[in-house]
Design brief:
- This protein has about 290 residues and is of the alpha+beta class.
- Helices cover about 20% and strands about 25% of the residues.
- Strands 1, 2, 3, 4, 6, 11, 13 and 14 form an eight-stranded antiparallel sheet that branches.
- The longest helix is centred in the N-terminal third of the chain and has 18 residues.
- The two termini are about 15 Å apart.
- It binds fe (ii) ion.
């Protein structure tokens, strides 16, 4: 397969910083992946040993050994508010989980199969990637009522290469609307927002910090800069690593399941202090060999 993405689509992606490719997964494939999410929660989440890690993005990020070690595992991160002061869940397990990550593309067969589809290899090739490496794959649950906002960010902040090369592949497994917390983009923001900081492992303790890259910070968004990107289950949202995007709180009674993974260019330096590392120090999965 060579032409999953047309030259016009590539031009749109490069101009806007994101691209929607409709109708990638069928309704049945989305249902199967949602089923796998519930299966992982049922079979891999042990509440008795779980450290009760709540995950939020931004400078106040909860980071501990469980998070730092999750790059090549299946780990579960709860929403703030899902765990009460007594340490017990305030909702059912599946309605309290923010996300499951960060190696579904290796450790879950249904997600491995979805990630290795020829269309996605053609997509990577079509946007000019030479040796895409897959990392940070996650199921994002955004549960009803509790699903928190994701503050404006750029994915290369978290998956820095020199120069930045991260690309996000975001696949809704359910229809996403402004009601249940769809993505919002600041179109064309990648042109004037270089990666000015990056999230690294804190050298002084178990945790993460943000350090400056030396690049100038881009302008702050105004309300009018944001565009909601409502998509159907099975579409692809392709995200440029410097594109400023966010999602809002899920105020609805609906879930908003999505699968996302990232790619970086294999030939570029990936700093050893980036938060995400394979625990044995090995390289990230070459997409073209999956
Ligand atoms: Fe993101």
């Amino acid at each position: 397969m060579t032409d999953f993405i047309t030259p016009e689509e590539r031009a749109t992606f490069e101009r806007e910083g994101y691209l929607i490719k409709p109708n990638f997964l069928s309704a049945q494939e989305c249902a199967d992946l949602r089923k796998e999410i519930l299966n992982l929660i049922e079979t891999k989440l042990d509440l008795a040993t779980h450290p009760g890690t709540a995950f939020t993005t931004g400078d106040g990020q909860t980071s501990d050994a469980y998070f730092l070690n999750s790059g090549d595992k299946i780990a579960f991160f709860f929403e703030k508010g899902a765990i009460g002061p007594d340490g017990k869940l305030t909702v059912s397990k599946e309605n309290g989980i923010n996300k499951i990550g960060h190696a579904l593309h290796i450790l879950s067969e249904p997600f491995r199969k979805a990630t290795s589809r020829p269309e996605l290899k053609a997509l990577a090739r079509g946007i000019g990637m030479k040796d895409p490496r897959v990392l940070q794959s996650m199921a994002i649950l955004k549960p009803p009522r509790l699903g928190g906002e994701v503050v404006p960010h750029q994915d290369s902040t978290f998956l820095f290469t020199d120069p930045p090369s991260a690309i996000g592949v975001w696949i809704p497994l359910e229809d996403c609307t402004t009601e249940n917390g769809c993505l919002w983009f600041w179109p064309r923001s990648h042109h004037d927002h270089p990666i000015s900081k990056r999230m690294v492992r804190d050298p002084s303790k178990v945790g993460t910090i943000f350090i400056e890259t030396g690049e100038k910070e881009g302008p702050a968004p105004r309300d009018s800069d944001w565009v909601p990107v409502e998509v159907k289950a099975g579409d692809i949202v392709l995200i440029h690593g410097s594109s400023v995007h966010k999602s809002e709180h899920n105020h609805s009674d609906k879930t908003r399941y999505a699968y996302t993974f990232h790619m970086i260019e294999g030939g570029l330096p990936y700093p050893k202090n980036n938060w995400l590392q394979n625990s044995d120090g090995s390289e990230f999965t070459p997409l073209f060999e999956m």
